[in-house]
Amino acid sequence: MSLKLLEITAHQLKEKLLSREIQATFLTKKLFEWIKEIEPNIQSYISLNEDEALEKAKEIDRKIENGEKIGLLAGVPIAVKDNICTKNIHTTCASKILKNFIPPYDAYVVKRLKEEDAIIIGKTNLDEFAMGSSTENSGYKITRNPWDTERVPGGSSGGSSAAVAAGLAYMALGSDTGGSVRQPAALCGIVGLKPTYGRVSRYGLVAFGSSLDQIGTLTKDVRDAAVLLQVIAGKDSYDSTSVQIPVPDYINGIDASIQGVKIGIPQEYFTNGINTDVLDSVKNALKVYERLGAKIVDISLPHTEYAVAVYYIVANAEASSNLARYDGVKYGYRTNDVRGIIDMYSRTRSEGFGNEVKRRIMLGNYALSSGYYDAYYLKASKVRNLIKNDFDAAFEKVDCIVCPTSPVPAFKIGERANNPLEMYLSDICTIPANLAGIPGISIPCGFSKEGLPIGMQILTRHFEEKKLLQIAYAFERETDFHLKKPVLKGSIA
Amino acid sequence: MEYEVVIGLETHAELATVTKLFCGCSTKFGAEPNTQVCPVCLGMPGVLPVMNKKAFEYALKAAVALSCEINNFTNFDRKSYYYPDLPKNYQISQNYHNLGINGYMDIIVNGSVKKIHIHNVHLEEEAGKLIHSEDSGANYSLVDFNRAGVPLLEIVSSPDMRNVNEVDSYMQTLRKILLYTEISDCKMQEGSLRFEASISLRKKGSDKLGNRVEIKNLNSMKSVIKAIEYEAARQSELLDGGKAIDRETRLWDEVNGKSARMRSKEEAQDYRYFPEPDLLPVLIDEKWLSTIKSSIPELPLEKKQRYIESFKLSDYDAGVLTEEKVLINLFEECVKIMDRPKAFCNWITNDLLREVKDKKLDINDLKIKPKQLASLVEIIEKGTISSTIAKEVFSEMIQTGKEPQKIIEEKGMAQISDEGLIESVVDKVIANNPNVIEDYKKGKKNALAFLVGQVMKETKGKANPKIVNELLSKKIVDIN
Predict the structure, then answer these.
(1) For position A493, what pLDDT does the model report?
(2) pLDDT given for residue B111 in this prediction
(3) Architecture of domain B419-478 in CATH?
(4) Is B219 helix (H, G, I), strand (E, B) or coil?
């Protein structure tokens, strides 16, 4: 098998499967061979699902052979972030506290993947409980950026992003609470889509910040993002916050013209603190858009500077409550030789959680504690509304907003690990979309002087994923940043 | 020193829904541990709650029945505390926007009405249950999550009660309201109705509230009363001794009739309430609210008053009758069939309740149908059976659900009104009791009653007493 086959997109792969140019079983076997060669350098997976994947591949080949009806993702190898529940497959959230946890149920999105005949390859690494921007906070391993294995892949969906970038999966699911899909997509040179809050069911996504969490897609191009979103979007009766709005056809019409589309450029996102290579790449991208007939409009999102502060109050408050259930009583890790229930709680949690998780639980509990609630949580909720209002006002004037996804390209492993505040600023460009609940996508738009990928973020109004994908696709069609692949050492290649 | 006792009650009632508050698991009581659970009510990673509409409507109904102000907007909050029976280590409850606030309930104490204010009514989820090993050396406890997630209504009264009579009336009235509205089955023995009391003392005439003590672990209405009496005495003694009352929570020990400190105010938990992000706020529009309002039946006090006025029942009888839903239904159905309220009232309040008590029957499992009780009353009026026999028939009716006519036929209990047959027995009795006849002649009038008794004995109580009396009187006179 040539490396080319590993580099093609999921929608291209599906055509080859349908035309019987290749078989799912063959492809799956080859993919696992590739994983065995490359994975030791990348460390993107926490667990692999080889036996079940091969079973599923056989089933798909049989279906295609018999001319049976097949799903939208038939035969496509997909990776799932390890904070999304998979029935009978370990789901650890990259935490020691869930080391032995095997969910008895599938997340809504996983159920949908299975219904559409996808092949689940394995579960990918993340910052523990999705808390982080580098995938260094995993309780199991540090994932490496395929473009430079000395660097981080971003996070928290770093495992999913690295896997797609390195051809270890054709697509992946991630989760995005403050940028955890878009930021690693940018750092790994792939496409990362965070849908509108409520567009995709959160049922089965292990909660971090419940009012911010959204499952997103990591793909090799924009069309694949449209296909994967098509599969996972929709109302789910198990998630009260998922919305009844009909799901449009994201795939057909993705190539619509963007003539006359108004693109807003928020001044607050183009300031110092943003790496010059990043700024240059995004500015060049705007020229492409102008050439395509879009109109560039300067806008302001005046409350942007408060976004990170608001986010770390709201997300941590919710996290402190969401993570209270890991107590050693029902599932997951329990400490040994306990002396009473308090001892069991405190030692289980002390030993089971990593430092970053503990830090956030403490911050969250503090923000919610009696006497501080009004000053922190309530105040943050109010400022969150102001940030939302900023976007509403902006979208009165423009159809979308374009800005950098990450202030910097991939940084070195360990570079920011000991400075939480600096790490938190990695998400400065992505956090506002989560606070407002609007959809956002990161697409490749250039490379730094060191040859590291740079991502551009596009944001639209709530539930305007179709327009978002059209605008992203228009750029992708005109450029070839997304076609460039990292050089990986492997005998198959 | 004379003190005034100030009492408030917190009531928890499990709602009578078939499924739990946030998932589809059964709420049925008494199943094998952990057989009515799912990822949602076990608080597995990744699960989300989905509101049970019926439970919400029940809670709304309770708030309306307790005359609360209903906001058109309500939402849920997370109440955080660590306990092994609480799967998520937070309880989905309400704190910032309770379903109902500022309500009241009228109670009757010593014949006069008193208004008890309801501070708030809100909806929350029930916790599971710890099962401690019977082996005292065991170093573990087990958890049964069957109950976790059962919808629970919390009703918080203002500290408006001043003595145990008021508390008793409050509990009885509230229980009846919950039963009448069919919101809860109120089975205290199954824990579906529970009370917690808070008590403080102040000098008579003072309007400043004293330090409040909360009492938990009250398993019956009787223990509520006992615990309050104990607590009032304890506080009074402390105050008399010049000591201060600590704000604390105490646990009632039913066996020893005492309470002991569970935690002090300093140890009080910080519940870190914040709005539950996984549930949407509920908007209550006028139309929905008026549907709920119209679903509220006649409430206990109105019903009792109507029984007294329309059916001329005594205050006591009306009280007993309106105690239980089953009794009310039986009575009201019977009255619809036949206009004999007093007769039905007597059968229900005397005979039926005695049978239930003597034979330890489940009042909710009685077999008797209203139509059957009505026909029993009719049969008695026709004189087919005597009232003594009727009691026997009734006893069988409530246990078997058989028609009274059938029981009478099967057992040959019908009254003997055949004069010829009765006359032969009367003759026999007269012949066998010459001495009694002599006594009668000498003026002992109660000798006649003895003779009637003998005839009834001979006929196994079935002879028509009217005919027996007539025949005996006539015959004795004839002998003269």
Answers:
(1) 44
(2) 83
(3) Orthogonal Bundle (1.10)
(4) coil
Q: What share of chain B is helix, strand, coil (3-state, %, to 5)?
A: 40, 20, 40
Report the side by side order of strands in the sheet with A45-48: A45-48, A119-124, A77-81, A171-176, A214-219, A191-194, A440-447, A453-459, A400-404, A262-266, A295-299
Closest CA to B122 of B181, B173, B58: B58
A-chain residues within 8 Å CB-CB of B82? 324, 327, 345
* Segment (H or E) for B131: strand B129-132
DSSP state for residue B247 in the 8-state scheme: P
**Single-letter amino acid code for the residue at B447:** A
Q: Alpha-carbon distance A251 to A10, whole Å?
A: 13
Task: Give the nearest partner residue to A369 out of B143, B272, B277, using CB atoms.
Answer: B272
CATH 3.90.1300.10 region(s) of chain A?
A: 4-264+395-483
Domain ranges of chain B: 3-289, 298-411, 419-478
A104-108, long-range: CB < 8 A, 24+ apart: A104/B39, A104/B44, A105/A204, A105/B39, A105/B44, A106/A204, A107/A201, A107/A203, A107/A204, A107/A205, A107/A215, A107/B46, A108/A200, A108/A201, A108/A202, A108/A203, A108/A204, A108/A232, A108/A236, A108/A238, A108/A239
Listing DSSP states for A421-432 in one string gives: HHHHGGGTTTHH
Taking CB atoms and an 8 Å limit, are B46 and A341 in contact across chains?
no
Count of pairs with CB atoms under 8 A, one residue in A, one in B: 95
Superfamily of domain A4-264+395-483: Amidase signature (AS) domain (3.90.1300.10)
> Is the distance from CB of B290 to CB of B84 less than 8 angstroms?
no
Residue B43's pLDDT is 97
Q: Residues A44, A156, A161, A426: which is the catalytic one?
A: A156
Our CA dihedral for B235, B238, B239, B240, rounded to 10 degrees, sits at: 120
Cα–Cα distance, A150 to A139 (Å, whole number) = 19
Place of tokens 């993002």: A225
Residue A208's nearest CA partner among A311, A323, A126, A60 is A323
Angle between helices B164-180 and B300-311 (to 10 degrees): 90
What is the pTM for the complete model shown?
0.89
pLDDT at A3: 56
Smallest Cβ–Cβ distance between B90 and the set A204, A324, A341 belongs to: A324
Pairing of strands B3-14, B193-203: antiparallel
Is A81 an active-site residue?
Answer: yes
Q: For B175-196, what is each residue's pLDDT tens digit?
A: 999 999 999 999 998 999 999 9
User: For residue range B275-295, what is the model confidence (pLDDT) as tens digits?
Assistant: 999 999 999 999 999 999 999
CA-nearest of B363, B360, B352, B358 to B395 is: B352
Question: Could you give the count of Cα atoms lying within 13 Å of B315 in the half-sphere of its Cβ?
Answer: 5
**Rounded to a whole number, what is the distance in Å from the CA of B338 to chain A's nearest CA?**
51
* Secondary structure of residue A18 in the 3-state scheme: helix
Distance between CA atoms of residues A175 and A185, nearest Å? 12
Residues of chain A whose pLDDT is less than 70?
A: 1-3, 490-493
- pLDDT tens for residues B384-443? 777 778 888 898 898 888 898 888 888 777 777 788 888 888 888 888 888 888 888 787
**B279 vs A240: CB contact, 8 Å cut-off?**
yes
pLDDT score, position A491:
53
Does residue A489 carry a catalytic annotation? no
Over chain B (480 residues), what is each successive 10-residue block's mean pLDDT? 94 98 97 98 98 98 97 95 97 96 95 95 97 82 96 98 97 95 93 96 91 94 97 96 94 94 84 97 96 94 92 92 90 94 94 90 87 90 80 88 86 77 86 84 81 85 82 76
- Residue A331 with chain B: CB contacts under 8 Å: 44-45
Is A412 a catalytic site residue? no
SS3 A61: helix
**Is residue A184 within 8 Å of A153, Cβ to Cβ?**
yes
